[in-house]
Amino acid sequence: MQQASGNPQLINEKTEDGTRQRPPRVVAQERPPADHEEALRRWRKARQRFTAVLTEAKKALADLQQIHNLLAAIAKGQAAIAQVEAEIASLQPTVSRAEDVAQAATLIHQKQQRLLETSERNAAGALHSRPGFLSRVFRTTTYRAWQAEHGAVLTTLTDARNLFAASKKVVDAKISEHSRLAADFERLRKTQARETSALDQDKQRYVSLVHQYPGTPISEEFFELRHADKQITAPWLDKKTARLRNDVFEAGMALHRAFVDGAAQPIRHNLNALIDGFGTRSLGSEEKDALIPHLWSTLFLLVPVVSTTFASVSRMFPKIGPEEFGWLLVDEAGQALPQAAVGALIRTKRAIVVGDPIQIEPVVVLPDQLTEAMCHQFGVDPVIYSPPGASVQTLADSATEYYGTFETKLGMREVGVPLLVHRRCEEPMFGLSNAIAYENLMVQARTAKTSAIRNVLGPSRWVDVEGHGQEKWCQQEGQVLLGLLRQLRQQDITPDFYIVTPFVVVQDRMREMLRTSGLLDGWVENPFAWVYERVGTVHTVQGREAEAVFFILGAPNAEQRGARGWAGGRPNLLNVAVTRAKEAVYVIGNRALWKSAGVFQSLDEFLP
Q: Which of 346, 394, 396, 553 is exposed most, by the fewest CB atoms within 10 A?
């Protein structure tokens, strides 16, 4: 920071010829700007580069968004065309029937017109043959005969005119009905043509874009994939987009560094002020304390992530108010008490919560009956909010708007943004965990690797030991473990393994046995520290991994079924124990007693 501020940093170094000055190695390696002017030049260059790659990345994201929109438009267009085609299919027979009826009405009307014309000619002829004046005066027989005939002709003419008028109304109505239906039919045909043309254009645009970003969209074809293939796919992230994302990240880091170089002096002053206030958690006055969030923001410019525990948040950030930090990342959230995270969550705008409720649950020292009574006293549902059943992870899963739904033996389970692809464990650890905890929904994506420990001890197995002991410790199980470890020591195998157990007493006795055996002397650098780092209860190893795991069961007496039932009553403990092992797991304990302890029945089925 001093160098970037324009204060050259040099140290004296003794040489054969005397003493020479050189920059500190960190300065030489980081190559800070020589002065503030150079820092500003670097800033302008970095900003230009970042703007360019960000524009390119945004273009790609816009294309991907268009692919998404086109998929929706294509589906909508296909549905619209199907609807129009259904209406056309339904209307076409009606139009045909209306046309036939109109034609029939027209024929009847034409017939009535001919009859009317005939009647009119007859009436004209009859009138033309009327007798003379004297016949009409004296009403002769000829006149009376004509008069009767003429009356009949007029009646026929009147009837013909009435029938003609009626048929005219009918034919007009039928033709009008047919015209209306034909217009509707033509409108549907035009709509079909328009929708088909738009759909063809959308499909062409879609094909063109997908060719540029292959394999990325969540389309109907994606949902037709097998479960495993869907899970290992990264939708919307093809090679081109991934490269652009990486370019933006690299350019962003370069821009970030250029900003730090350009603002080195005020950043250094802020950091000094923050460090000065660490001891008292205060800068001396309320006015100065109001600057503490900004001082922390300065630190975050240089250190993106600050790690702490929930218990330390109130002491570490006493002057940080609600939503003054940007992000909170919670790891192993399935093991965290819900109330423990409140202080950290209040202080941040957004949170990413990562954990697995099917691994180790939160540790609660109060009896379940007491916590349930306290919850009921304050009107809180203990099933939702009370540990150990509830954790930071379960509450985050229930709060997130993005989640997956899975069917389990106990009903439907909602999981926020589930990660089902597994890359740590070889079989049988993967298969066992998948069966007891994840309804066989996990997908194996791990490539096979060699294992020096497995080469010496053989494949994963259950070493059956029928022993006895006080409390839950079995001396014979410890001796069996020492025998296996001696085989590894003799072959000079690197001790990359954990020794885990469900019970604290077994942990303590196993540590003592290893220390007093002398087996670790010369095999590990610090035997005393090693046993505390590598030997423990299952609860202490969550989040860790090793080449192999030795699982010491303990509880060797028949009457200790309660302890065994506690360990196997839920899948969490066994799930964590076996999935710490990448290559092999060796279970040591009484098989006949343990295989009936809940989920340990599955362990019996998976291990030879």
A: 346
